[in-house]
Specification:
Layout lengths: L2 E6 L3 H15 L4 E2 L8 E6 L4 H20 L4 E6 H13 L5 E3 L7 H9 L4 E3 L22 E5 L1 E2 L10 H5 L3 E2 L2 H13 L4 E5 L7 E2 L2 E2 H9 L6 E5 L8 H9 L6 E3 L7 H6 L6 H14 L4 E8 L6 H14 L3 E6 L7 H5 L6 H26 L3 E9 L6 E5 L5 E5 L13 E9 L4 E5 L1
Helix pairs in contact: 7-8, 11-13
Bound molecules: 5'-deoxyadenosine and iron/sulfur cluster (SF4).
């Protein structure tokens, strides 16, 4: 039996894709390897979102090339976004790579691997308008057994001017809701207690007459003990209906990830985000009106084309105004082929990008700390995920707001908390990254 190891980089969608690839290969008799050293086939699932992500992969391929020299017959495959974007260049410049497959061609992997075993290099980077891998049950590769990602759609039609995703993942398409519900029910039956519904823009999910709010309602109806999360929402179409569904369904989590990218309407226009700062803030107010306890997180880009000190100041003021619980923060990285790369000079010097990013990160640390301090003394229900990495007599779990809380493992009744348990806690202390609490 051939053994395969999949190494995953990039976003949560890539995590599910690796699990889907494992399902496809397992159906053809492949077993899972524990690491690259006991694998016959190593697949690298790659990301293209920023240049740094791609540089890591070029370097990783060299390391794997060295391993391959010592292990005759080992097959190295490159899959995912970078495979889609750079197939030819990779085959030319990295001879250790035997096969290349883009995000929509994973069903052809068994054939590509078989071809590579016979010494033929294989490539499939065809994008599809229909492929959703709908009926496949991903083989869960992490071992928590509590929380799983479920892909509900693929691709993206938004064409934000900085973003490579529409080119690497193709057009938007939604997965059949029946297959989604079946997968969720199977996960619950297997002991999972949290699902995160994934798509590049979940708000535009549409399958026949099933919209995203309707899908969320159906998934949440699986069981009240199943927590439901989703990512990512585009601010331009987060609707009142969606907010209402979340507000009236207790097991849909009180955490919305709503990437702003910038606080300057002028930048948002250049980014082709299709909303203004005012529109964004109005959506935040709508969320807060319906759910005062909802956590809001964001993605921000520092130093996009033509960004002035005033634009940057507008991002900082937006952050203060919203008071984000959490943020992913990046320096702008020009991506070949995007509208920005074609039409807008990447004119903010790197030192300026770095300085702005540092300010954004420092402000976010302050905001996260303030938000965590507000939680001290409050009570939350957490879903236990596992043992604390720092100490074996503590466990960690998350609140509905997606904040990590560390508590003693043994309850007052002498019972040891297990992954998958729900428990009520009161917050006692915090840092900007975590809360500490006690059982109530
Ligand atoms: N440069 C920097 N950050 C980017 N993102 C997307 N494209 C780029 C880019 N070219 C960020 C956005 C997006 C997140 C997934 O990555 O903030 O929301
Ligand atoms: Fe995910 Fe985007 Fe990276 Fe592709 S480019 S792996 S979609 S973050």
């Amino acid at each position: 039996m051939k053994k395969v190891f999949i190494e995953t980089y990039g976003c949560q969608m890539n995590v599910v894709d690796s699990e889907t690839v494992m399902a496809i290969l397992a159906a053809e008799g492949f077993a899972r390897a524990e690491s690259t050293t006991d694998a016959d086939v190593v697949l690298i699932n790659t990301c293209s979102i920023r240049d740094g992500a791609e540089q890591r992969i070029w370097h990783r391929l060299d390391e794997l090339g060295a391993l391959k020299k010592r292990r005759k017959g080992m097959i190295i495959g490159l899959i995912g976004c970078m495979a889609e974007r750079l197939a030819d260049r990779i085959l030319e410049q990295r001879p250790m790579v035997d096969l290349v497959a883009g995000p929509d061609s994973y069903r052809s992997l068994p054939k590509l691997v078989a071809g590579a075993t016979d010494g033929a290099k294989g490539v499939n980077v065809e994008l599809s308008k229909e492929e959703t891998y709908a009926e496949l049950s991903p083989v869960r590769l992490d071992s928590s057994g509590v929380s799983a990602f479920v892909a509900i759609m693929r691709g993206c039609n938004n064409f934000c001017s900085y973003c490579v995703v529409p080119y690497t993942r193709g057009r938007e398409r939604s997965r059949d809701p029946e297959t989604i519900l079946r997968e969720v029910r199977e996960l619950f039956a297997a002991g999972y207690r949290e699902v995160t519904l994934l798509g590049q823009n979940v708000n535009s999910y549409l399958h026949e007459d099933v919209t995203f709010p309707e899908l969320l309602r159906r998934v949440a109806a699986t069981d009240p003990k199943l927590r439901v999360r989703f990512a990512t929402s585009h601010p331009k179409d987060i609707s009142d209906e969606l907010i209402a569904v979340i507000a009236k369904t207790p097991n849909i989590c009180r955490a919305i990830h709503l990437p702003a990218q910038s606080g300057s309407s002028r930048m948002l226009e250049k980014m082709n985000r299709k909303y203004t700062r005012e529109w964004y803030l109005e959506r935040i107010s709508a969320i807060r009106r319906a759910m005062p306890d909802c956590a809001i997180s964001t993605d921000l880009i520092a130093g996009f084309c033509g960004e002035t000190p005033d634009d940057h100041a507008a991002t900082l003021s937006l952050m203060r105004e919203v008071g984000y619980e959490f943020a992913f923060m990046f320096k702008y990285s020009e991506r070949e082929g995007t509208l920005a790369a074609r039409e807008m000079p990447d004119d903010v010097p790197d030192e300026v990008k770095t300085a702005r990013l540092t300010e954004i990160i420092e402000l976010q640390n302050e905001l996260s700390l303030q938000s965590n301090r507000r939680d001290i003394g409050r009570e939350f229900e957490i879903l236990v995920e596992g043992l604390s990495k720092r100490s074996p007599d503590r466990v960690f779990g998350r609140t509905s707001q997606n904040k990590v809380v560390v508590i003693p493992r043994t309850t007052k009744t002498g019972h040891n908390l297990q992954p998958g348990d729900y428990t009520k806690v009161r917050i006692t202390t915090c840092t900007s990254a975590t809360l500490q609490g006690e059982e109530v």
